[in-house]
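User: Please predict the structure of the protein below. I'd like the answer in structure-token form so I can feed it into my own downstream comparison script.

Assistant: Understood. Taking the following sequence of 134 residues as input:
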Amino acid sequence: MPGRQELPSTLERSPQEAQRTWIEAHDSAVAEYGEGERAHRVAYGALKHKFEKVGDHWQRKEGGRKNPSDPQSARPRGQGGRSGEGVDEKASKEHLYGIAKELGVEGRSRMSKADLLAAIRKANRSRTRSARSS
């Protein structure tokens, strides 16, 4: 199964359901489009419907919601858009605050929802980089 060998490190630290979602979408995309960046984008798009990135792993969205988490995932395939980098932009401010707390984001109590989204993205990138280097 190609998806199993291509599994990103953030998904190796994630629940089995997240891994299975990514692998199935990836393998389906490989069958349709061939191996490469497009297959990975399709797999991440499918993953973002039920999961959000928290630090160096993915976890189920608040309340088990199933919806695209960012403008890129919400658009039909091939139409592009801005990526939310795995952060659920439709989550409540309270939920984002909880994730920011889990990630140790400083100054979170004074942040707007947009600030929380940006801070979580930054913390996720930092955690993913440090996990790769260890």
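That's the full token string. The chain has one domain: 2-133.
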